[in-house]
Fold these 2 entries.
Entry 1:
Amino acid sequence: MSSGTVYCYHCHTQHPREEMRLVVSKSGKRWRCIASIKAAQKSREEREAFGRKVSAMNKAEAQAKLKARTAFANQTALK
């Protein structure tokens, strides 16, 4: 993790520290991005849309990592 970014426990991604707020949750203090805090204050439909967007980004990132690992494993196996 770079010193300029912080992990958001809500959307599970790194954000610049300026876009984050330290919030108190049941499990203690955690960092949460301003976008997720603002999204939580909107209507149910808008919150669900934000959640779908974050889920899609996380899924795309996970698939890209898996593809890179698979390509690396295949490349290493050929040697």
Entry 2:
Amino acid sequence: MQYLLDGGLLVLKVNDEKPRNEYWAIRAGRFQTRIKLSGQVIVNLDGEFRGDALTGTVVERGDDAVPFQLTRVPKPSPELLASAPPGRPYPPAPKASAKDFEGAYEMALPEKIGVPLPLVVNRLVCKQGACLYTIANDDPTEFKMQGTVRPTTFAQARYALKYAMDRKAEAKAEAPHLAPLLDSGASLAGCIDLELEGMRAPGMVILCTLDRDPWKSPAVLLMGSILSDSCRAASCRYEIIPLVRRR
């Protein structure tokens, strides 16, 4: 699915003639979160409103379709609002470019989120404006490197890192591979958007550099949006995937 997080709210466009500005909860596959319906075309849903519910399918990639259900909720998720409160002015994000990220990175990381073992090698190779991300022996996912992230996106990414650092003990227990990062006190130096082909969703997946090297070698953080209405010990708003430059 594709979403845009704008001012702390997930924004989604539904195929409906009437303009909407309401909060809804969405279930699609194993994901559940809250959204704000508006006029921004982020993902096209095919379905029918009946009272306070909308059911149907959403095209995720290519011709694949995922069943979904929307139900009305009274307010947006407090966790999403905390990551970037709406109405607050944000300074420009630090300038970053594709050249800042060129190189090959890897790290052995948990195969399943929230489960420390087993570990599988994650690889990221960035060059000539594109990044290939591979987990174990799976087919690689290709991203196009875009420009500097939006101010609100950078604020949300900083929030995600601070969230984990503020809960260091719990975060280490859930994600031991983040220990060097959490102990380092590192901050984000700059971030760019990564875009899947045909899926323009700023802030959905981003790539960030750090102001120091927790692993004694240059590292990047691949950060993917968490489509969930709650936070875990080690993550909120973004899942943090550290990758270290190969020597």
